[in-house]
Amino acid sequence: MISRRPPLLLLLPAVLTVLGVLLPLAYLVFRAFGAEASELREIVFRTRNLELAGNTLGLTAAVLACTTAVALPLAFLATRTDFRPRRFLMLLGVLPLAIPGYVGAYALIAASGFGGTIQALTGINWPGPSGFWGALGVLTLFTFPYLFLNLHAALRTQDPSLEEAARLLGRTPWQTFLSVTVPHLRPAWLSGALLTGLHVLGDFSVVSLMRYPTFSAAIYQQYTAAYDRVYSAWLALLLLVLTAAVLLLEARLMRGVSLSRVSPGGARQPTTVRLGWGVIPAWALVLLLTGAALVVPLGTVVYWLTRDFDPAALVDLWEAAQTALGAAAVAAITTTLLAFPLAYIGSRYGQQHRWARLTERAAYLGYATPPLAFALALVFFSLRVTPSLYQTFPLLIAAYTLHFVAEAVGPIRTSLAHATPRLEEAARVLGLSPLQALTRVTLPLIRPGLWVSAAFVFLSVLKELPLTLLLSPTGFDTLARNVWTYTEEAQYAAAAPYALALALSGALLTLLILRRETGKASPQGQQSTPHRLPEASPQQGTPL
To answer: Angle CA(105)–CA(111)–CA(115) in degrees, nearest 5?
Structure first.
């Protein structure tokens, strides 16, 4: 029989994870309130804070609206219509996720304006993106896959009996879509919207390149340029407040949602909609999205690479790639090792012990915390408690691990859900110790989930920028850091090889994960995604 209490060997890493996430954030609060009362009043009640809050919330709402306008039609085309090829639609809905936002921003900036790619190839001086509209366009193009994946799964697995009943009652197809299909998509949309909202709240690279002030951009500016650590700590806290509000709103909207099936039998495929003349606007949407999210960014990178390519830069490129891949590999291993105890405790003991569920969910706090705020908390904490760790490789790996451990928990817990505890109980009856049953029975069964978790974290660390900028050791140059540095200095040709290497690496990993996950997807589509908080919406799974 499985013990009523988690093994100490698994409990200790889980507790250390919780402490690792909570202690830096607690010190961030301590640091923010460390100033005198008069200074605190001046900081808290600055009109600049209201402006930053308005910009941040406005941009988040606009991105959610635009990504919905892109992802919903694309997901509907891929699941409910006779549009072909469907495989191309799936790739179009996923591949932009492999291109970091700052790479997309770099490519669009380098493609426009005087001397840009568009002018060089067509003679048209296309205006460069900047400000609110530039940030909105870039973030929409490279975050809509969060919504697409969730909406695609929901549309593919919806019970067709609901729509059939509505049609029998005299509803038109459009009325059926609004009254039946759209409400069914609510959990999926909330799940994808949560991820999109968290991404926009925590993004500083795109808004910085577009010169649009938000909380994250202001935090980076105050810490690196103005050296005002108290104000930067307060900005981080205010950003955390907005993040907490978004999480609470999503949880409140998910209350009472039920997606019970109408028909008791197995899942049936929904009726395929014939587009007819509607195939023309469908292809227009697909081609426009392909050009904006894939062709223009990658074409711009290739153009600047061939325009002023320096073979000597290959040495620096190789060194940066080695550094980035090495850090990503180490972080993938440490994060997966730390995620397993959390997933195991939550899966096997979460129903019996409330604290077991809280232990697992506390790890998601590190993921939900905007990266720049989390990095700032670790900076303050390390300088105060262990100054020798500041700007060291172990601290950087710890930051990667604590921030991305939530990504690794999802696939592992999904694998544990399919590995019935009765197999462990049978192993115990046959005389194996708890550790032997775990290593000889459970671990082989969940090995695919472990590999997927490691791949998710590897891809995320490869693209990560805020944690790397604030916590990496001196001289620690990665692909992401070089793209950011050269783009900030408008050295587009110098940034091109790093951007291309990063985009191709991300695309390759994304395709490998996509192939593995779609190959083993269950009929109900209950699979985890690399960028999804499972606890945020337990009613809705998403295959990638």
So the answer is: 130
